[in-house]
Amino acid sequence: METKIIDGKAIASKIREELKMRVKQLKIQKDITPGLVVILVGQDPASQIYVSNKEKACQQIGIASRVYRLPENTSQEELLLLISKLNCDKEIHGILVQLPLPKHIDEFYVLHTIDPKKDVDGFHPTNAGKLFSGQKTIIPCTPKGIMKMIYATKYKIQGKHAVVIGRSNIVGKPMALLLLGENATVTICHSKTIHIAEFTHQADILIAAVGKPGFVTGDMIKPGAFVVDVGTTRVDEKLKGDVDFETAKSVAGFLTPVPGGVGPMTITMLLENTIEAGEQYE
């Protein structure tokens, strides 16, 4: 069986060309340039790289980008005050607080403060509730990007058994909801699941978002399955996925690599969410 390796960079590049046109149209029709603010608290090296990549991506397609780099000892009150000001800034359509935050700051409270219309990460309880109830809303970037990758291959989701490994609010839970919305039968597994391979062997679609490099091996995969690797753990200065690529590629029908798979799609969906927020702006 020949495994199709899904090129996330190529799919993301095609979408970004379309986004450039939407930015131009928004300027012509509403005289609006979509604006994204990223707030980074502290000096986490991985977060700094992500923020730089987001800045570059915004510049490439014409989104106005602004970054606030705040010291580690920034108080929660100072951060909330900044977010409140940005909520009222008419030039800003998207607000993203880079996670993780320092331990002295309540992550949930901070995310709850962002205007739901500007919550381009899709983490606000209002947007999470709309996703749960099947309403149109801002969708978290990584699950949204994964769905677009699947669509790009013309793979038929309806009626398939999807297994999601991971139950985070950022990936696992919204991923399961999106797959349900496409009429898949969905199972969620996690760190406490007993005999997890019994579930992965049944998966027509397998989403690995557990944060453990090489956790899913080829002998855990149903032949021909659509396998999406969300993991990005740095091991010996290299990014490693949750799926053991070498053993998986001889079994899976479709497989995303790390790097070059889900990552480029996540940032691209952030750009799309910012443009959509601009298009909805009144």
Question: What's the short version?
Answer:
By secondary structure, this protein is an alpha/beta fold.
Rg value? 19 Å
Question: Helix amount, in percent?
Answer: 40-55%
**Arithmetic mean of pLDDT:** 95
Structural class: alpha/beta
Number of domains: 2
Overall CATH architecture of the largest domain: 3-Layer(aba) Sandwich
Overall 3D shape: globular
| Biggest sheet layout | 6 strands, parallel
Number of helices: 10
CATH fold label of the largest domain: Rossmann fold
- At the first level of CATH, the class of the largest domain is Alpha Beta
Order of helices and strands: EHEHEHEHHHEHEHEEEEHEH
Unreliable residue runs:
none
Q: Please identify which CATH superfamily of the largest domain we are dealing with.
A: NAD(P)-binding Rossmann-like Domain
Strand content: 15-25%
Side-by-side strand order of the widest sheet: 1-11-8-7-5-6
Distance between the termini: 52 Å
Question: What is the number of E strands?
Answer: 11
